[in-house]
Amino acid sequence: MNRILNWFMEPYSITLSELKYLAKLKKNTEETKEKIRISELIAFNVVFLLFFTGFLLLSIVYIILSFFTIWYAFTALVISLPMMALAKSVQKKRYFNRRDAYIKNDPGLIKHN
């Protein structure tokens, strides 16, 4: 049970620590273009949290509704859980590899695994 909760809460902890890192980086950066790019990444992280929260709430609501309606209310999980898994994989495998390259506007900094 704890493992399932950690799966759902992991994007929140990662994104909140990322927001703190970006805020500190923005404060220490002097170049205007980099500050704008950091602000864009902060906005992206906020939108990511809203996206993930929307699918999490959708899952919870439809699980509750399934107790009062017929079993087909579980079909919303067929959409929301894969979308949440996709969002998590994009955050882990793509975002962190490209973040510094985006801030510096240097494609050579993209980390290839």
What does this entry look like structurally?
With 113 residues, the protein is mainly α. It has one domain (2-102). The protein has helices at residues 2-28, 32-68, 75-104. The relative contact order is 0.11.
Strand share of the residues? Answer: under 5%
| Mass-distribution shape | elongated
Order of helix and strand elements from N to C terminus: HHH
- Rg for CA atoms: 17 Å
Helix/strand structural class:
mainly alpha
Helix content: over 70%
Task: Please describe the topology of this protein.
Elements: H1 2-28, H2 32-68, H3 75-104
Helix pairs in contact: 1-2, 2-3
What's the short story on this structure?
The protein is mostly helical.
Comma- or semicolon-separated keywords:
single chain; mainly alpha; 3 helices; 0% strand
